[in-house]
Give the backbone structure.
Amino acid sequence: MFQFFKRVKTVVGSELNSMLDKAEDPVKMLDQFMREMEADIREVETAVAKQIASEKMLQKKVEDAESMMKKREDQAMKAIEAGNEDLARRALEDKKNHADQASSLQESYARAKEDVAGLRTKLDEMKKEYNEMKMKKDSLKARAESAKTRTKMNRTLSGINNDASRGGFERMEEKVMQFEAEAETSEDLRQSNRSLDDEFDSLDNSVDDELAALKKKMGKE
């Protein structure tokens, strides 16, 4: 009945932490462990209830036997008053039988009462252990969740800071710089082409001016 109680004692503390270290999912393992504890406590509570019922039954039998002892003694006294010693003797014999029975029942009742007290003490200890384990579970559960979060963040940061990621960003930066250089070159070419056009426009204007001057000289205006 109390194998579980002994088991609880062995896993409290470092041994439970060792079990959690080996578990794939400590949170699920803790939840399962608490469910097992709850089931065992309910089982012991049922055993205690049955033992209490047995104690009360023995107590009732002791009281009944003692009541019959008193009844037979009263009857024996009445028989003596009536001058019927044989009836009185039979009443006293039955009283002795009930006395022997009461004595035996009293011993059983005392043991049952002691057992109930012990069971209740053990049950209280189990419940205390359970409450302590529940607080430990909540703490370990929070620690496990925190550890998972930190691990996820560290992996994310590691992915960002690794050589491949840095190389990728550097290549992206080079590409952007290349785009910028190409844009500046195209701008220079556009400026260069516009200047060349301006030169041709200027050349065309000089021919027109020369033609006008020649026509003026020849009186052909």
